[in-house]
Amino acid sequence: MNGEKEKIMRRIREALTVPAPHPGTHGQDGHDAENDASPDEGIAHWLPQVGEGFDAQAELFARNSAQLKSTFYLLENEAAAAQKLAEIAVAEEWKRVAAHGDGANGAATRKMVSGLKLAGIWTDSGYDVREMESCDVGISECDALVAQTGSVVVTTRSAGGRALSVLPPHHVALARRGQLVADLPAAFELIEKKYAGNYPSFISFITGPSRTGDIERILVLGAHGPKKLTILCW
User: Fold this and answer.
1) Whole-structure pTM value
2) Does residue 180 surpass a pLDDT of 80?
3) Beta strand 211-212 with 220-221: parallel, antiparallel or unpaired?
4) Angle, alpha carbons 202-206-165 (nearest 5°)
5) Of 61, 124, 190, 222, which has the highest C-beta tally within 10 A?
6) Which of 143, 146, 129, 134 is nearest to 57 (CA)?
7) How many CB atoms lie within 10 A of CB 213?
8) In sequence order, what are the residues at sequence separation of 6 or more whose Cβ sits closer than 8 angstroms to the Cβ of residue 28?
9) Bridge partners of 233?
């Protein structure tokens, strides 16, 4: 046993003599320190660049969504969003829906979800976790969409608690065009401006549906949460 322990410790000591690769070089030779980002540039140097204006940012968000296996619809207005939601409900044969209708745009959300004429629950009035698990979809509002990463920002207030965006197998996030922000710094700034002094107990950046690649590096969706993520933006 001591012999095996010594072998392990020897390997650790040998590994510690090798300098770690510089962040961003992926261990490649020929690193040029002169081209590094200065401390003033911060982490932004390493993040994807985002174009100016809504059209460029919406295009980037759509591209990131596709790569993340989530579905993004940019729609003309609320009526078009309601129509698209109804089409998805029919295509996927939803029977039960869970939703949150007490957010910043609660009236519109309630109108859209009620128009589906499906059985279900509203998180506003309390719910049984087992009942929510039996729903085909969870429909929530959100706080922001991040073009840079394709992320949906939700909080306990915008998403009706912690469970709605996690338990049902399909999560549908409802967003307005004005909620699309360029990058992560802008998203954090929005959260700080909106909730400073009274932050929600839960803030999450949802970047695509739940996934894992632990077993033989095979991507599996829905391993620890929703298998599908759909974003309707108008």
Assistant:
1) 0.78
2) yes
3) antiparallel
4) 65
5) 61
6) 146
7) 10
8) 21
9) 74, 175
